[in-house]
Amino acid sequence: MNRLIALVLLSCTAWLTACNTVAGAGQDISNGGHAITNSAEKAQSQ
């Protein structure tokens, strides 16, 4: 029974860690897209 509880806790921890990693990657990609958009808008206005 202790092994089952440990396995469930380990699985939950891994799942939550992966979730945070994917969310962070999504934010990084979004920030990169905003930077490209801002650069393009500045180039057009010149």
Output the keywords.
46 residues; mainly alpha; 96% helix
Summarize the structure.
It is built from 1 helix and no strands. It has about 45 residues and is mostly helical. Belongs to the EcnA/EcnB lipoprotein family.
Layout of helices and strands, plus pairs?
Elements lengths: L1 H44 L1
Pfam families: Entericidin (PF08085)
Family: Belongs to the EcnA/EcnB lipoprotein family.
Protein name: Entericidin A/B family lipoprotein
Portion of residues in beta strands equals: under 5%
Stretches with pLDDT under 50, minimum 5 residues:
none
Distance between the termini: 68 Å
Q: Give the integer mean of the pLDDT values.
A: 82
How can the largest sheet be summarized? none
Q: Looking at the structure, what is the overall shape? A: rod-shaped
Into which percent range does the helicity of residues fall?
over 70%
Number of strands: 0
List the secondary-structure elements in sequence, H or E.
H
What structural category characterises the helix and strand content? Answer: mainly alpha
The helix count comes to: 1
Q: Please state the CA-atom Rg, rounded to the nearest Å.
A: 20 Å
